[in-house]
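Weekly structure sync, notes
Attendees: PL (lead), two postdocs, one rotation student
Agenda item 3: pending single-chain targets
PL asked that the sequence for the first pending target be pasted directly into the notes so everyone works from the same version. It is reproduced below exactly as submitted, 1172 residues in total.
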Amino acid sequence: MSRTLETLRFPLFGERLIEASAGTGKTYTIAGLYLRLLLGHGPEDEEGRVTAHARPLSVTEILVVTFTEAATAELRGRIRARIHEARLAFLRGQSGDPLLAQLLDEVPDHQQAARLLLAAERQMDEAAVFTIHGFCQRMLKSNAFESGALFETEFLTDDSQLKLQAVSDYWRADFYPAGESLARALRKHWKSPAELLAAIKGWLDNPELEILPPVGDETLFDRHEREMARVAAVKAQWREHLDAIRAQTEGAVSRYTGKNYEGWLEKIGQWAHSDEHGYALPEPLARFARSTLLENLKKGGNAPSLPLFDAIEALVTRPPAIDDLVLQRAAREVHRRMGRAKREAYQLSFSDLLGDLDRALASPLGERLRDRIRATYRVAMIDEFQDTDPQQYRIFRSLYGGQEETALLMIGDPKQAIYGFRGADIFTYIQARRAVSSHYTLGRNWRSSRPLVGAVNALFELARAPFIYDDDIPFLPVEAQGKSKCLTLAGAEAPALCCWWLGQSPTINKGSYQSRMANATAAEIHRLLTLARQGEASIGDTPLRAGDIAVLVRTGSEGRVMQQALSALGIASVYLSNRESVLESTEAREILLILHACLHPSDERALRAALATSLFDLDAKALDAFSRDEKLWEATVQEFSDYRRQWRRVGVLAMLRALLHRRQLAASLLAGPFGERRLTNYLHLAELLEQAAGELDGEYALLRWLAEATRDGGQAEEQVLRLESERKLVQIVTIHKSKGLEYPLVFLPFICSHRESDTPLYHEESRTLLDLTRSAKALEQAERERLAEDLRLLYVALTRGVYATWLGLAPVRSGAGKSSKTDLHKTAIGYLLQRGEEGEAELMAEALAALAREVPGVVVGEPSLARPAPLVDEHGEASAPRVRRFGGRIERDWWVSSYSALSTSGSHHDRGVLATPGFDAEVARERGEEAAPERSIFTFPRGARPGTLLHTLFEEIPFALARDPASHGEVAPRVAALLERDGFDPEWSYVLTAHLAAVLGTELLPGLRLGEVANHQAELEFFLPMGRVTAEGLDAVRKAHDPLSARGKPLGFQSVQGMLKGFIDLVFEWQGRWYVLDYKSNWLGNSPLDYAGAALEQAMLDHHYDLQYQLYTLALHRLLAHRLPDYDPARHLGGVFYLFLRGMPEAGVFHAAPSLALVRALDSLFAGEEAA
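Predicted structure, written out during the meeting:
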């Protein structure tokens, strides 16, 4: 049973657990208890028990532990300020603070109290307020004999390179001796040591983790031989008993007939006759397991009797595997190697500090060490206790458990345990809660308005177990102290909780939900700021400001979507949770070009590349002037020569600042979109370059360093993007980073987004388990824990607001299928409102309506999807300038067109976008749905952005490097960086790296593999002049000369003339012939068969890709005619390849060779002549 905590009556000894709900004054309470310990204060409580500690303590005897350096600094500052405030109160004999006023009444000797507090204030720089790692480091160092710690050690803040080296050593020791068959199997799982490190990193960072099933001393070779023997036995029986298999299953089992049945037999037969020793089983094999056959047996049929069916049952129930053995052996061996390497180098990492102190306390000298630590720190207060892990709790329980003469005060809120990804463990908190009998709560919310507190209370009271683990994490409604002010809009008090509901459709996919809610949120913020300018929006008597508004998101990609939506309406914002590296920014890549030009000012290509960067902001006319004006060009060469001399004389930082000033880049950048962000990045990079230059030998070494850094990225603290503005802008922040903070107004636009757990990591009693068999129990428990943490995240998000909160709700559904039921019950907000019940959109709508009826201050409505005009600030500045509306008529008889404009009947408005390199218009029109849990090229996200990313991989990563398996360790991080840059989960890097190699190794023609092509040009841009071309005329030529086009739909564009612009993904030469190649990311299905034969041709026709390759062939024809002196289209034109990437390498390759007659007819048509 929990008791309400009274700061001046709380017992200051023994083990005590304090549960502090959001906004209830946790830090204020810690500071109050700290004052009592300094003063030795402790009157009897209501039951007559003494509450004081044995004696007054100094600041060096009171240990306060928290989890980050920032939190430590804040806590130290708050305690210092409270001590100062209390000392002045004792000197004056009065205080307006109720707690201090009561303390004055209960402490008789004010002068003595003031002296104690003055001594404490002077000693605060020595106060024992530490991070947990800082505490461990001090204890090991100051008790080196008892702890067995080395006297002189180097502390490693980043041990990632050490981990990679240890994994590489293990790789060589265990993988190199493997035979060809085993090596091939291993490389299917991990292409490089870096990939293996990613797989075991969770274990290395969490030594408490147990992997299931456990393995003994079995070798990789023994396991491989045993598993391959199982596979070989089934293969042999299949080959031997094929006739009996047919006799016992065909027609006797439901749906075991026809083409599907023959297809199953064919796939399994290919596998059974193959010599490959692989671990992958053909998908149809499970259909011949005995349980499956019996389940589908026709009524009255004879049960299949072949022993083979039992063997198949055993094989598919426990598929052949070696990854579990490798992971456990690797984790164990890498941990051992790292420990040895650090000991030999006298080094310690963060994890060593905890581990070494934990082991020391459990050693024979542990009791002596415990006595020394308890003698030093009589009281330990653990702030944010809900974020502890088992090892951390074990250390403090070992020190203070069962010790009544000392005190262990554990202060936290289990409802805010949201850092599981960092190793924090809510189950450790639950274990402590069960072990400690004295529980206290802080039950009054001082942060939020009364209606908002009431709304949050009501929401969490809807479910019987709002945090899943009801007995261990109960929800106790808090009282509202109540704010006297409120948000007023147009003279009326605004609702505390506004629930937007997109209920027009039975279900909505995640992409549409995100887009609509981002736009709705931006529009509502626009409305609020507009009202504020009109004097119609205020908090109390203070006008509402942009800095009063926060938008909370889960991920960086959500933050970017939100920032773009705000920017489109002229609303400046700042993303406060950006952990991306500045070395991965556009500015880093452009500064690399600029530095290259500075070192090579006479290299025309290098100098033009630098001038074309967005940092210089030169338009086409200005760039063209360099070609026409020789004096201008010579002056620019001289300017960059001056930069080179300045770089060598005073350093790269001074040179880049001089360039900034001379070219007036600051003003230019600030005038553009996201200007503050870009200028901040430029200056940040200049400082990083100056710092790196001090450790490198010369300008060329610095250039190499930047080239490698932009390729590999970096996550060192000094490389993380800096805050671009200190202005009071709309704040975008992740829920994780918002914890502990408050904002007057809060928007939660994407609160219905969720991601189901696909990692079988779960907890059982005091154990953390990773089940590599992916059992149903493990996955179910992992999903339950995922939902529990999402509920805690929701609690954190809903308790950040002071006056008003907006929620974006919709009947979101992921995946395919015709069901009208939503996925809302899997989300935290849906779990509460629908009480965990699965249902259709109406269920959520009814729950919202009931909430609005029963709870004051809650309203439900549809968000406004209207797009207002961009906001212009009060100084006349506009983030997105408004232009005068044009009312005249533009002649369109001559314009630049593209394949996409000809293949659709789209408006003139679309034409410029469709000619953008890397943009796949057809992919943009696909309706992308959320990916399936298992990562594969089929489940990679769909749509325009994923399509552009796949194109980028083939453009930016050299073919030879990507195809070489030995280089995958280098390729995977580059792929991950591109994924992160474009807002995708970097975990996809392993799928995409492997697929990139597979595509490049696919045989397109006998002897032709793309990865082996040396002579190629990516993103070839072309402009073709064209006379007046009509859809009818173009169709007539295509249908007459191309059999595929003869089956297609007619074109529907209006007549055009002017220029045809386009970008060919790849042009390459092979054996004297030239080919056009285009990458397509279209999703046609989840099987390679969906990307072959008629299905592939239909996709070509559906998107008018036949027109595309005809136009590209014409462009290549004209290019070669100009470039090759002996050009003969019959001899030099090789044809076209369309690579449907999701179907490769098994299928997905479309090849055609447009006839010479077609090429000549198109040439004539576009020249304005009559086609032959």
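Discussion points:
- The domain at 3-128+377-442 is CATH 3.40.50.300 (Rossmann fold).
- The longest helix spans residues 69-92.
Action: rotation student to compare against the earlier draft before next sync.
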